[in-house]
Amino acid sequence: MPSVNQPVIGYLGRILPTLSETFVVREIAALRRLGQEVRVFSLYSPEDSAVHPEAPGLAEEVKILVRPTLPRFWLAHFEFLLRSPLRYLRCLWRYVLTTEEPWRRRRHCLAYFMAAPFAAHCVRSAGVTHLHAHFANAATTTAMMVGALTGIPFSFTAHAYDIFVDDVLLAKKLAATAFVATCSHFHVRYFREHYATAAQAAIFVVRYGLDPERFALQQPSQRTPPLIIAVGRLVETKGFHTLIEACARLRTMPLTVDCLIIGDGPERERLTQMIRDLQLTDRVTLFGKLSPTEVAASYGQAALLAMPSCVRDNNRDGIPNVLLEAMATGLSVVSTCVSGIPELVRHEETGLLVEPDDPEALANAIARLLTDRPFAERLAQAGRDLVLREYNIERSARQLQRLFAGERDFPEEN
Known about the structure:
With about 425 residues, the chain is α/β, with parallel strands linked by helices. Helices cover about 45% and strands about 15% of the residues. It has 2 domains: about 220 residues, Rossmann fold (3-Layer(aba) Sandwich), CATH 3.40.50; about 180 residues, Rossmann fold (3-Layer(aba) Sandwich). About 50% of the residues are buried.
């Protein structure tokens, strides 16, 4: 049982757990190791394949909040209207009826409001004293409405798409939240520059973290030809199209490499056609999804990891989690100057950076790491040291625990 003074934290995600969000599961597991009581909620059902080694039984304990087939889901509206009419009507007025969001987005606000009373009932019944949402869009909208209905304070961790594209009600969230956690100083600057309400918001840099014991230093791969790996959803902002073009340029140098792209998504067909058109079917493989354990094992087979992120319609990565994992194992990395990535991949210090959408620069950076192994090994060692020092999950969890306890006067991470 938690102590009398210790908050009971509710963690809320849109889909929790899900295979692509290992960082959320790591955070929950680390908080629990510190003795923090954490209850887990998901708007929708967890992914069947989302079994994370840090918390293998997490999916079984999750409380699902969007349950319109349950009578209790709808009865919750009448209960709040009867018992807390001012809170209920104020929430509806503020976040649905009078919001400045365009009508298309206002329909989303209404959908979240329909789920909020049942979510509030579940959160309150679980004894939660502080609700924390991951991603600033759907989960945080629901958390904000739960807070409005119950008085339970909420906070959120903001990442990427949820800030740069799907930013529904974000100004109001910044005004209402107890605090915001985000992975980089770039994100903090973005909030301050784009939202007037961010000026008064408590925004903290809490680095993504990992457990060093799960990503031990590995010996450099002796594979011939050398293997480049890339990991992520097959979406345009990951920049895998640039990596495929870079592989074609490497062939003309000439430099023989294999490239393995792990992940799946809507870009698969286009990327497959690119590989055919550039006559790279013998060298570049779209491997599909792997579990977190399988992805971790793949780092030991590679000479380097490429993460060629780019920006499309303001959508972009934050700091891709795979960069942390690869660097922790001692793998050299090349990435791009997008959002918070340069805070982790420091050019010619912990890795190499190129401009996004530049296949020639990416090919040259890859060639440099492959042909100058002492240089690559120095970067890899410095990268591992940085991750172990600043991106340790226990350190990040302690910072979050202090934020949940109401502390706001400690210094942010560098």
